[in-house]
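Morning - 3,4-dihydroxyphenylalanine inputs below, output right after.
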Amino acid sequence: MDDLKAKYLGQIAEAGDESALEAIRVAAVGKKGEVALKMRELGKMTPEERQVTGPALNALKDEINSALAAKKSALADAALDERLRTEWLDVTLPTRSRRQGSIHPISQATEELTAIFAELGFSVAEGPRIEDDWYNFDALNIPGHHPARAEMDTFYMHRAEGDDRPPHVLRTHTSPVQIRSMEKQGAPIRVICPGGVYRADYDQTHTPMFHQVEGLAIDKDISMANLKWVLEEFVKAFFEVDDVELRFRASHFPFTEPSAEVDIRCSWDNGQLKIGEGDDWMEILGSGMVHPKVIAAGGIDPEVYQGFAFGIGIDRLAMLKYGIPDLRAFFDSDLRWLRHYGFAALDMPNLHGGLSR
Ligand code: DAH
């Protein structure tokens, strides 16, 4: 039995791939393998001999089986390492010119709205997508127990074992960039903050990652009237029409007081989404006068300064403008879809050339 053990454990250690391992398994512990043959001899033994040899054979079989399993997983690890070593991609290589890419409708919409807000005096600010709990919530007047935290279907990141600081989150909105911008620039300030945001939600008009643009204007004499005018100017310019019907609905956000949600008139006709006509409304943004606590959290004196803020869904805007009925298609990477809805790479939007020629 010692010979058998030495022989097979030796072979297993030497085995170079899974098929060699399988051959060893069959020869050693398979139905007709050497250990099975030895087991058959048990019948010819005296009861005393059997009592010793039986368990010893079983132990041998177990030992060979576990050596096989250990070697198998070591081989799999080695194969994976080898694959990772050989299969790599130089992402800095130039693309093939005959396969010209196109600009994604969301990038296009982002460029368009950036051009419009630039004309209105807003500069662009960016913030991290993995955000500190404080910036995403507390600084925006959403304390720990606030229901808005649950409503936002937040994705939380793991902290290391034993680290009991609040976890980082995938930012649920672009509003934390308001705080970062106020901290950085002080007042007066006029910024927009476009970028990706994350929430656990999925249907025709929701995806777990989507895009917003935050707007913030802080100065000494800003009112709701300024907010309304800016939003109306923006929507007219973006949709390239003289008249768009907007509906301002009183609403509630922890970071604004008063607050309003804005819907745009639209229709869904045979799965076609049309802007400006019909009996449906699509919510495109939330807005309001920035809460004094939020201004203070940004390091600005709310006794001296006030202002407005808004958060617009970029994907929603793109759906409406380009008549795209399903949000999920934006992120499917379907080449036919991209060719159909994409924009020529050199057609950068600007106001004098027309936004979306
Ligand atoms: N952060 C809000 C959301 O994601 C949108 C929003 C509402 C932003 C009102 C604002 C605002 O700046 O004033 O649902």
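Note: The chain has a mean pLDDT of 90.

O.
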